[in-house]
Amino acid sequence: MATKKSHLPIALIVDLILVVLFTIVGHYTHSHNFDPQGLMTTAWPFVAALVIAWLLTAV
Predict the structure, then answer these.
(1) What is the dihedral sign for C-alpha 17, 19, 23, 28?
(2) What is the pLDDT of residues 27-40, one digit of tens each?
(3) Crossing angle, helix 36-57 and helix 8-29, to 10 degrees?
(4) Which parts of 1-59 are beta strand (E)?
């Protein structure tokens, strides 16, 4: 039987993928061209908040 802790890496990866997809959709929604640097500039605050939330709650 899998434990709660064994699912954490998979859940974190899924969260990160969803944040990146959110950023890409936001860029296209606001008529920005595909620009990796622009995507990273937009994504970093969301990724930072996600990492902080994981550090605070994944005990």
Answers:
(1) positive
(2) 888 877 778 888 88
(3) 140
(4) none
